[in-house]
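Below sits the subject:

***
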Amino acid sequence: MSLIVAAASMLGLLPGASPTGSAHAAELKVLAGGSLRSVLTALAPKFEQASGHKLVIDFDTTPNLIKAATSGEPFDLGVVPIDVFYDAAAKAHFAPPVKFARVGYGVAVKAGAPRPDISTPEAFKKTLLEAKSITFLPASAAGSYILKMFERLGIAEAMKAKTIAQAQPTGIIPAVVSGQAEIAVFVNNVLTAPGVDIVGPFPSGLQQELVFPAALAVDTKQKDAAQAFIDFLMSPEAVAVLKSKGMTPGHD
């Protein structure tokens, strides 16, 4: 699905509003991981105002991002989970990526609800088995790891009966706030949201970080403008937003 994040500032109206590395305002089509929606929605207007460029962002799950990258439809850059690059066909459509952020996994409950024990793998397993319902996004890079974690704990079958699967990360928080799901398990930047409390990270031995690279499309016609956005993702302004969303900034 597409989100035109904000209208670009008109050239010349603001100091420094001329597009970075370009003689004209570019419209950039960006493929982005759905779990980055809150981050990029906060950052995009800042970039647009500073550069004069316009961002059109397609937020989606990893399987759908792979399809989009290999569909033949033009795009300018990707800001996606690293799992997209594990697909050889998708990887061929990107220039070498730069890792700009990573994030761990956590557990959240409705704000004010009792916080279950997730301090050890055994305590976490007990909490998951005793929960009436859990919610996450199975068809995603983060969801794939969560499913593997259930298998490691020996509770994969038990979890199927109580999982309220979401089609997009945006469904996770409302499911918990409404009481439809008792707990949410997912990456922390999605769980860092009003209406829920983060119980804590996955316990030691089960924790892992999801890495997010950014990369130019090999056939983009807006290389300078697209590179300017990748550079912006590593700027102090972007780093502050990433940290506020529970992510760890960092690049190669």
